[in-house]
Design brief:
By secondary structure, this protein is an all-alpha fold. It has 14 helices and no strands. α2 packs antiparallel against α3. The longest helix has 17 residues.
């Protein structure tokens, strides 16, 4: 895994059972496979600039159309960036349909704009739909200069597991803008790495700590190293142990790599 890769690179992995969702909406999604996670459906091929421009033109028109057309437009702006979309995306954050809200949140993650910060934070704090809050937790990672650090910390402390997972990842982006933000972000990630009940959250916390390491002061760096070492050796989940080891290896410190090799030689690591 590269140092930019995340343990769970898509916003909707498997842990969605504890999300709050209107049963009627869920039934509609299951029956018609509406939209789902927009980022799961992105085309991985590279379109030409002309094709992108044409797609964005169509998306702009669709965002002002029927609900079905708006969903098609939202799919486009979950993939492409176009400043013309922002004024059309913002009102959709207040849509009564949670699928529209969720998709508008993702689109504003792809198309970050200062006007999106306040309504996104309001959704993170108050939306009763877990899928929407989870989308916000992902999207706020693209707003690292905005005042998103404390809201993400709170979500990592108190929200459902699926939201915590992406709050942990986005904290690495929000905290990576300098030491003043890196330290409180690392403090919460260290706590989550130790106590969170969800392995995916602990994995993303380990990944985030590796990302923040360079911006931390030496005492906090040492705390990160020791916590990752403890996780690597003692966490109950192999996936979390592997993520902690990868985070340590990517620090590329000779003395730390030597320490890891010693653990291998002693049979404590494979």
């Amino acid at each position: 895994m590269s140092d930019d890769a995340q343990p769970y690179p898509l916003p909707f992995p498997d842990s969605s059972g504890d999300l709050v969702l209107d049963p009627e909406v869920l039934a509609l999604e299951l029956a018609q496979e509406l939209l789902g996670d927009p980022l799961d459906e992105l085309d991985t091929t590279e379109p030409t600039a002309l094709a992108v421009a044409a797609e964005c033109d169509a998306g702009i028109a669709w965002l002002s159309g029927s609900q079905e057309q708006r969903m098609q437009g939202l799919r486009i702006f979950c993939e492409h960036r176009d400043p013309r979309a922002v004024p059309l995306l913002l009102p959709l954050l207040a849509a009564s349909c949670p699928i529209l809200r969720m998709s508008a949140v993702y689109a504003l993650g792809r198309n970050p704009h200062p006007l999106g910060v306040e309504p996104l934070l309001a959704l993170l704090a108050g939306d009763d739909n877990g899928y929407v809050r989870k989308a916000v937790a992902w999207s706020l990672g693209n707003y690292p200069e905005a005042p998103v650090l404390n809201p993400l910390i709170r979500s990592l402390q108190v929200d459902v597991a699926a939201v915590r997972l992406w709050a942990a990842s986005s904290l690495a982006d929000a905290g990576g803008t300098g030491p003043a933000k890196a330290d409180p972000a690392a403090a919460q990630l260290l706590l989550s790495l130790r106590i969170d009940s969800e392995p995916a959250v602990r994995s993303n916390s380990a990944w985030g700590l590796g990302r923040l390491y360079a911006d931390l002061v030496e005492p906090r760096q040492q705390q990160v190293v020791e916590s990752l070492l403890h996780t690597m050796l003692h966490d109950a989940e192999p996936s979390v142990r592997d993520e902690a080891r990868l985070a340590l290896e990517q620090l590329e410190q000779p003395e730390l790599l030597e320490r890891l090799q010693t653990l291998v030689d002693e049979g404590l690591l494979q």
